[in-house]
Design brief:
Blueprint (H helix, E strand, L loop, with lengths): L1 H29 L2 E9 L4 H16 L3 E10 L4 E8 L2 H12 L2 H11 L3 E11 L13 E7 L14 E10 L5 E7 L2 H8 L9 E8 L7
Antiparallel strand pairs: 1-3, 1-4, 2-3, 2-8, 4-6, 5-7, 5-8, 6-7
Helix pairs in contact: 2-4
């Protein structure tokens, strides 16, 4: 009788775990996902890449929502950092397919800028339920922090910075999370860096400056 009860309990745990895994997989199809992209541009081509982006990025934003697009000022040089929002992975696949068939986008932009890139990186993220990506101030600077600090221990404050979003990684370095901050000035960002927000956990931050075509200014 005891053996049967133990077997039933074990089977129940297996079934519960299976349901949890299935739910996690389904969430990738129903929850919004965010793609963080980083392009490393050849120094000699940076200005040309930037100018072409000013002129033609509207062709890309016709296809899906751009959260923000920045140049990396410190923590990476000649890097472009941008975040895109999708309804789910199926939506992303449809957008990528539509972009492949967009001849104007391909001929006026992609064919010209692709040879200017040294490296392309991307990670798929999920926005924390407490984050809204709502920006209340403009005219400052941005900071993105990639950290191994556990998600449940991540800070909500960092000096006078405004936390815009906390993201967990779905595809990429799975033990890392990202936080996007807005600071009123570079000095304010530097002051917040003295607070030891992330403790001893491995963390990399970047100072970001918004581009003219970025929704986040």
């Amino acid at each position: 009788m005891k053996m049967a009860a133990n077997a039933l309990l074990k089977n129940g745990k297996v079934i519960a775990r299976s349901f949890a895994q299935a739910s996690s997989i389904r969430s990738l199809h129903t929850d919004k996902v965010y793609e963080l992209r980083t392009y490393s541009i050849k120094p000699k081509n940076f200005k040309e890449f930037y100018d072409l982006s000013v002129e033609f990025m509207h062709l890309r934003t016709n296809h899906s929502k751009l959260v923000g697009y920045w140049t990396s000022e410190i923590g990476g040089i000649f890097d472009m950092v941008h975040i895109w929002e999708y309804d789910n992975l199926q939506h992303r696949a449809k957008v990528r397919q539509a972009m492949t068939g967009d001849q104007e986008w391909s001929s006026k932009y992609i064919s010209k800028v692709f040879p200017m890139m040294e490296r392309l990186e991307n990670v798929l993220l999920k926005l924390d339920s407490k984050s809204s990506l709502e920006q209340t101030n403009t005219g400052g600077v941005y900071e993105i922090c990639c950290t191994e600090k556990p998600l449940k221990e991540l800070p909500n404050t960092k000096g006078d910075g405004q936390l815009l979003g906390t993201f967990s990684t779905l595809i990429g370095s799975l033990n890392t999370s990202y936080q996007l901050w807005y600071h009123k000035s570079l000095d304010a960002l530097v002051s917040s860096a003295d607070l030891g927000t992330y403790g001893t956990h491995s963390t990399k931050s970047r100072l970001l400056l918004p581009t003219p075509w970025s929704p986040m200014k």
